[in-house]
Every structure is written in C-alpha cells, then in structure tokens.
Amino acid sequence: xxxxxxxxxxxxxxxxxxxxxxxxxxxxxxxxxxxxxxxxxxxxxxxxxxxxxxxxxxxxxxxxxxxxxxxxxxxxxxxxxxxxxxxxxxxxxxxxxxxxxxxxxxxxxxxxxxxxxxxxxxxxxxxxxxxxxxxxxxxxxxxxxxxxxxxxxxxxxxxxxxxxxxxxxxxxxxxxxxxxxxxxxxxxxxxxxxxxxxxxxxxxxxxxxxxxxxxxxxxxxxxxxxxxxxxxxxxxxxxxxxxxxxxxxxxxxxxxxxxxxxxxxxxxxxxxxxxxxxxxxxxxxxxxxxxxxxxxxxxxxxxxxxxxxxxxxxxxxxxxxxxxxxxxxxxxxxx
Length: 335
Description:
- By secondary structure, this protein is an alpha/beta fold.
- It has helices spanning about 5-15, 45-55, 70-80, 95-105, 160, 175-185, 190-200, 210-215, 225-235, 265-275, 280-285, 315-320, 320-335, and strands at about 20-25, 35-40, 60-65, 90, 130, 135-140, 165, 205, 220-225, 240-245, 250, 255-260.
- The strands form two sheets. The chain has a six-stranded mixed beta sheet with strand order 1-3-2-4-12-5. Strands 6, 7, 8, 9, 10 and 11 form a six-stranded mixed beta sheet that branches.
- The longest helix is centred in the first third of the chain and has 14 residues, at about 45-55.
- The relative contact order is 0.20.
- GO terms for molecular function: metal ion binding.
- InterPro entries: Ferric-bd, SBP.
C-alpha cells in the first residue's frame, strides 16, 4: 500500500502550490559523456547520488557544483549573461527560482519523463521540471536546553524563545525563500511575524546547515529548519528533536530540470529520469527525504504524511515578490 496516497499528494500540492564547491563522479569509461549538475543538495548526499547513478549509467560522467540555492542561481545567471553556462542539469530546493528559469525560456521540455506513480502536482504542467522529493520546514530544538518543546510557529514569538532562535536566510537558501514566502502570505503571520522575531533577538544564519550546527552545539536553543537535517542529526546522536508545527508546514519539492543550452541533453535527461526511479527514490528516503514515488516508504521515524497540515502558498505571487521578500528580510535580519 502506498504511503503517499494519490489523493493526499494531490490535495497537499493543490493547497500548497495553488494560488560553492565542485566534485565529480568516479572513474568513467573513456567514451563517457559528461554532464554538469548545479545543485543545492548537500555535497555528501550528492556524492552518494552520483555513485548510485553511475552504477546504472557508467557511460555518463557527472561533474558537480554545489552551493546554496541563491549562490547556485547567481552563478548560473552570471554565466548565462556572459554567453553560456557549463551546467546541464539544475537540482535546487526552490520552485520559485525554477519557475523563473522556465519563464526565461532556459529549460528544455522533459517530454519523456516517467509519470507512473508520480503525483501530477509535482510535475510542471509544461513538463520543464519535476519535483524529486518532498521537504517540509518546521522547528528544531536542543533537547538539553529546552524542557517544554514548542508546538507551533506562534510559540517562537515568546521573548525567551525568540532570543535563542536562529533561522535560515532566503538570501542563501531556496527552502528559506519558500518558507518565508509562504509565511508572509498567511493572514495569521505576515511580515509582522518576522518583525517581532527580529525585535526579540532572533538571528538569521545562511543556509539550513548553519541552523542545525548552531542548535546541535547549543549555541541556540531553537531553529527553523527543513525536517531532514534535524531528523538526520537526531538519528546520528545530536541532542536535537523536530516539531511539525500545528498551524502547518511549508513544503518544497526539490525540482530538477535540464537547461536548454545543455551540450549533453540526452545524458542530462537520463539523469532526470533516474532521479524518479525506484532506486533513486529509495536512496532519497534513506537520506531522510519524503519520496515522491508512490510505494516507496518514507524514512524510518517520519510521520505519515497524511497527518501533516500544509500551509497554502501562491508560488506565482512568490515569484513576483521575490526581490521585495529578500530585501525586506535583509532589512530585518541583515544580509
């Protein structure tokens, strides 16, 4: 039985989406075709992804550039403005940024991607990109410092909590772009929520990695973070735990796409198709991600996704307001 019933996934995404380091894969055959992947996924995870991909496709060598989504996009856009980017594939935690690439005519249609068992809502209607994972944002806390865990976003506004809170910045993190963009669209929160957090001492790091490091080390008692980083840290023995806030969570799908000016479009498409395969989805679950392929179990210890409440979000409005969102956040928290 699927742990991601089709009705759940469709309703989840209808509600949610309506309205710099480089490494390469291992040795490859002399005749191998090479693709370059630009990504925001953690480097250790991508090394494992490339290794698994090459077990199935030893004839395709994968070069990698990895950084936060904002830096990935800045590099890509600068290269494109200069004439051409070496990137063939983009895999980032930001549907808004991917939509901008689509609107700019930078993406190649993925007409042959497998769709059986994949929720239609994670596939771009024009099939220029497709979500590869489900990632939610919630609250992490240090179990040695916190005796009464928060249960809601509103709990973070308490003065004693806010002064020991760290959150990721949308100036660096694509997931933070989606989370901040989602929260400011909620009537119960808006920009006043973030203004109050800043006034009461909350600070912004860079990406989600800076959040888990600060909370795990006890430098901060609370953090706003994507779930897999907190739950992976807990599984490895860090004194942290994670809360899915009762008001709901923001959600991203980590979309993947092939760039229109790729020098190896067929090899790039092969990488995209593999991302949606059962072995890749199982690997993703082992790395701590909710899968998008029906029939693949979520990571051990994760809740049934049908129990999660997802905050509604208008991604078109997020794209329109992206510059203002980042500027407003920087005014509040620096950047």
